[in-house]
Amino acid sequence: MIRIILADDHPIVREGLHTLLETQPDFQVIAECANGEEVLQTTARLQPDMLLLDLEMPVKDGVETMRQLSQLAQRPRVIVFTAFDDDERIIHALQAGADGYLLKEAPRNEIFKSIRVTMSGGSMLQPIVASKLLRHVGKQRMTPVRPLDAIPQVEDLTERELEVLRLLAQGMPNKEIAAQLIISERTAKFHVSSIMSKLGATNRTEAVALAAQRGLINLGE
């Protein structure tokens, strides 16, 4: 059972999402919050597994709430659930510790899948969010003094790392990658770390974005 807290300052959004999630036998909505301060207090008290968090809330917004959540001894997984899809909000949310980013227009099955994948250690981004992240990363790394041949090429990744990368792009956590490739979880973790290092990425999400930028994977698949 995945114990979930919903955080949104619009009651009708919370009620609709609550009703939707309760249709799944492995989801349990244990609380609803209307602002960031309430999220922090309720999370510390109930220790949920998952938090679906809006970005625009009174008292404390979603980004500040996530930053303070990182100080808890037991931090829940966090999926940002918002109507905003501009690059700046996406980047700030991921930097603050979001494990996933969903737009409120997402189909119900995509919401269900994101919760389950994120809870198992993966990271889910909708295609439109991933493409915006990719564009941002591309802009950040486009500098006039950096020659093209200074960027690591495809050959830098081994065949096994490319296999791991494709599974990583599907949002799989290390445990599932290991099972898929019939290797140990420790080996899968090693490959993921190596991929991030070779691509110059600071986290799994950025690694996927950079890999797509270089043509190693297709985020639209």
UniProtKB/TrEMBL annotation:
<dbReference type="InterPro" id="IPR039420">
    <property type="entry name" value="WalR-like"/>
</dbReference>
<keyword id="KW-0597">Phosphoprotein</keyword>
<protein>
    <submittedName>
        <fullName>DNA-binding response regulator</fullName>
    </submittedName>
</protein>
<feature type="domain" description="HTH luxR-type">
    <location>
        <begin position="150"/>
        <end position="215"/>
    </location>
</feature>
<dbReference type="GO" id="GO:0006355">
    <property type="term" value="P:regulation of DNA-templated transcription"/>
</dbReference>
<keyword id="KW-0238">DNA-binding</keyword>
<dbReference type="Pfam" id="PF00072">
    <property type="entry name" value="Response_reg"/>
</dbReference>
<dbReference type="Pfam" id="PF00196">
    <property type="entry name" value="GerE"/>
</dbReference>
<dbReference type="InterPro" id="IPR058245">
    <property type="entry name" value="NreC/VraR/RcsB-like_REC"/>
</dbReference>
<dbReference type="GO" id="GO:0000160">
    <property type="term" value="P:phosphorelay signal transduction system"/>
</dbReference>
<dbReference type="InterPro" id="IPR000792">
    <property type="entry name" value="Tscrpt_reg_LuxR_C"/>
</dbReference>
<feature type="domain" description="Response regulatory">
    <location>
        <begin position="3"/>
        <end position="119"/>
    </location>
</feature>
<dbReference type="InterPro" id="IPR011006">
    <property type="entry name" value="CheY-like_superfamily"/>
</dbReference>
<dbReference type="GO" id="GO:0003677">
    <property type="term" value="F:DNA binding"/>
</dbReference>
<dbReference type="InterPro" id="IPR016032">
    <property type="entry name" value="Sig_transdc_resp-reg_C-effctor"/>
</dbReference>
<dbReference type="InterPro" id="IPR001789">
    <property type="entry name" value="Sig_transdc_resp-reg_receiver"/>
</dbReference>
<feature type="modified residue" description="4-aspartylphosphate">
    <location>
        <position position="54"/>
    </location>
</feature>
